[in-house]
Amino acid sequence: MKTSFNFTAGPAAAIAACAAVALATGCGGDDGGELSGARPAIDNYIAIARAGYDDTLATAKALKAAVDAFVAAPTPATLEAARTAWKAAREPYGQSEVFRFYDGPIDNLEPLINSWPLDEVYIDYVEGNPTGGIINDPVTFPVITKQLIADRNAAGAEENISAGYHAIEFLLWGQDLDPNGPGARPHTDYLPGKASYDRRGQYLKLVTELLVDDLQSVVDAWRPDAPYPAEFAADPKEAVRRMLQGMGSLGGAELAGERMTVALDNRDQEDEQSCFSDNTHRDLRADALAIQNAYLGRYGEIHGAGLDELVRARDAALDAKLAQQLEASIAAIADIPVPFDRAIADEAGRAKVLAAVRALQTQTETIVEVATLFGIQLNLK
Amino acid sequence: MRPQLHLPLLVLALTAPAGCSGDAAAGYEPGEELSGGDTTVFEQGHDAFSLSARNLKGERRDRFFVGNSIFNRPWVTAPSSTSGVDGLGPTFNATSCSACHFMDGRGAPPTQPGEEFLGLLLRLSIPGVDEHGGPLGEPSYGGQFNHHAILGVPAEGRAFVDYEEVPGQYADGTPYSLRRPTYRFADLAFGPLDPRTMVSPRTAPFMIGLGLLEAVDEAQLLALADEDDADGDGISGRPNRVWDPVTQTTTLGRFGWKANQPGLEQQNAGAFLGDIGITSALFPDENCPPPQTACAAAPNGGKPELDGDKLTDATYYARLLAVPARRDYEDPTVLRGKALFRAAGCASCHVPVLVTAASAEVPELAGQVIRPYTDLLLHDLGDDLADGRPDFLATGREWRTPPLWGIGLIGVVNGHTLLLHDGRARDLAEAVLWHGGEAEAAREAFRTLPRDDRAALIRFLESL
Fold first, then answer.
1. Rounded Cα–Cα distance for residues A266 and A262 (Å)
2. Backbone angles phi, psi at A325, to 5 degrees
3. Measured between CB atoms, does A7 come within 8 Å of chain B?
């Protein structure tokens, strides 16, 4: 394994750093022992990931039960129950997003689980196009299957999304055409009399089942007897790198960048993540909390060893700074008016969103500092 | 050899401290793994082509993310409630940038018989030049074949590629087979193509390091040129001179397979129009040749459809997509491959080191020592690769030297290793073997190498 350096300052600095390290430790030496003190934090992180994905799977199964009940008997009450189950499922999933961005078990499946923004008319009718989407196209897609839904996901363009939470969200809420509230798809979309009602119900049931299947795969990959946790923990420095990579990527490129800066710029409701349900404020909160969880080593009832202790032992001021910034980001997100699509449209709301973007960017730069403290190179988007 | 820049001095200065590995193998140049200088990123996975310049910090990243969203966003038919992104077509090849440049990577020709084109397009022209010296579009189909159209407008038709295997062998007797593409058209909506039509297939190139290439001083590139092969080495790189719609002058071409675009803003605006049918201030007119009346009558998504800020942001994004660092750069086999690459003459055109201007518009891209392995000049690559279609000064046998940085990661990002302008080469060795013309001596050098040396040279390319 090669010693990694921060090359940001250019080759000359890298060589100087290399020479310094060579004097101290001998170059190209093994880092394996360097962060061996991180093992408790790594083990606790794995426990958190496991608990988080267990909750995610359980709530997705509850969603599936609610969806099945709705499709079997579409009424305003069963539709509302399915929507409530969807929102409940988003809470643990959001808090699991910090386990993304390092080619872990979630990363290959994530496009099937949580892709957005999605082009609604790829799935179903929209205003102005009553026959749009896979659901209304029995000629091209005579039978709707889980395989078909999975195969069509991101086929041809990145926004051709057919699967995942947001596909389900669209099928439960419909287009959000109301500036003050969420989408208002009627339960009658799933009753005889509405075009393709049976294919719509079939699609909704199968896309939810596919979500459960995919989350089950992620849960299985993190089980104690599966290879991934052992591989994750094998090299402490690499494990810490992945932990920081997830935290930095989620807060920086993902939240501050794609989900908030882009939405601010376009002032477009299409750019809010849970645009059909107007649940974006909860997505943002769960993600910011996830980053804090990963740093402090906690989730729900679990509170074990965290990265914070490792940082504190080396640089107490840096730990205090990051802890404060993580809290500040959560507060800044809580301060954004609801719904998010209104917040990006009016000036007062936009200032709050921008403040949250800046808080997350600041926090991300500190996460890079923490990595540097450990001699780790982060590749953030 | 052509005139040399004094870059080796700079490299030598950096070489002075001992290499880190302890066994500093001859030939490793410290820092050579940093293909994009300070902008270099260290990702080797699916996102290897999707990261922003490593030295792009804080608020300066905001526009990168906005540009990224424009790059991924599918355009829809006008009129639409999503008014910022309507105006698709009327005829088009794809609905978003990322459809062809998937994961900011490289497009490919169809891999199954009958599969539609995505990531490969066909340029069309007839003999003659337009008012700016550029190609003259086919009278009924224009300068680019669009096989899609919005509802109510006929698509131009369908295109297919067929391959014929061409056997060959290395000097040591090892056989190989190359596949030669031919193109045919079907269901042409406006009658047969003009019999004089010249067709040029072009795959979507990967997006990395483009801003760095744009920031290289023109003088540095011109110093690499040797139009009349004054030094008699058989290599006569020459600059393309193309029309710049921004300055309304003829200027150095840098981008595109024939260096027919002078800068990234022009390249992007050209692709928005040619590929997606989106007009901009630079290219304000929809691409509807005279017989295509339904195309001309279709509603548009505003004049222009792409507002100036969006073009600026998309261009900022294209400028700042970073080049990934090399891997295995100290491996002895890779270093041997690098020496063989140079000895074979490959580096005469695939120039290893360039330096960006100190005054570059984007400060992150200024004054960087970069290793793109290109001279951005035109070279005669011989009959086998010729498309027979001139493009400004580029003849039908000339192509711009494509950069090689990042080439070893295309497989990881895009799941294929199809190379050259039309994706005919199935791997790096086939790409080398297709070279002819000015590159014939270099190709022969490769073809006559012992097996181990060929493998070493390929290993070197894979490390880029």
1. 6
2. -70, -35
3. yes
Residue B166 bridge partners (DSSP): B178
Q: How far is B179 from chain A (nearest CA, A)?
A: 26
Omega within 30 of 0 (cis) for the link into B304: yes
3 state SS of A158: coil
d(CA B285, CA B288): 8
- What is the distance of C-alpha B161 from the center of its chain? 20
**How far, in Å, are A379, B41, B249 from residue B208 at the CA level?**
15, 11, 27
Identify the residue whose tokens are 């012992």.
B450
- Start-to-end CA distance of chain A, whole Å, equals 24
Distant-in-sequence, close-in-space partners of A319: CB < 8 Å, separation ≥ 6: A308, A311, A312
- Using a CB-CB cut-off of 8 Å, the residues of chain A touching B69 are 258, 262, 265-266, 271
Q: Which two tokens stand for residue A277?
A: 């349900």
For residue A44, the distance in angstroms to the closest alpha carbon of chain B comes to 27
Chain B residue whose CA is closest to A18: B20
How many beta-carbon pairs under 8 angstroms link A with B? 118
User: Vertex A359, ends A353 and A360: CA angle to 5°?
Assistant: 90
Domain A7-380: CATH superfamily, name plus number? M75 peptidase, HXXE motif (1.20.1420.20)
DSSP tally for chain B: helices H, then strands E: 13, 13
Angle between helical axes of A11-25 and B7-15 (0-180°, round to 10): 20
Give A157's pLDDT tier (boundaries 50, 70, 90). low
Largest Cα separation within chain B, whole Å, is 70
- E strands, B299-442, are 354-355, 369-370, 378-380, 398-400
Q: Do A203 and A134 form a contact (C-beta atoms < 8 A)?
A: yes
Taking Cα atoms as reference points, which of A299, A342, A295, A301 lies closest to residue A320? A295
**Residue at A236: amino acid letter:** P
Digit-coded pLDDT (tens) for B361-416: 899 999 999 999 999 999 999 999 999 999 999 999 999 999 999 999 999 999 99
The pLDDT value given to residue A156: 63
Asked if B40's CB is within 8 angstroms of A380's CB, the reply is no
On the question of pLDDT at A116 being above 90, the answer is: no
Closest CB from B30, B55, B80 relative to A15: B30
Q: Map residue A295 onto helix, strand or coil.
A: helix
Q: What is the dihedral of CA A187, A192, A193, A196, to 10 degrees?
A: 90
Tell me if the pTM is above 0.80: yes
| Cβ neighbours of A11 in B, within 8 Å | 14, 30-31, 34, 37, 369
Chain A residue nearest residue B41, CA to CA: A379
Residue A154 to residues A110, B99, B150, Cα–Cα distance (Å)? 12, 9, 20
Chain B nearest-CA distance from A293, in A, is 24
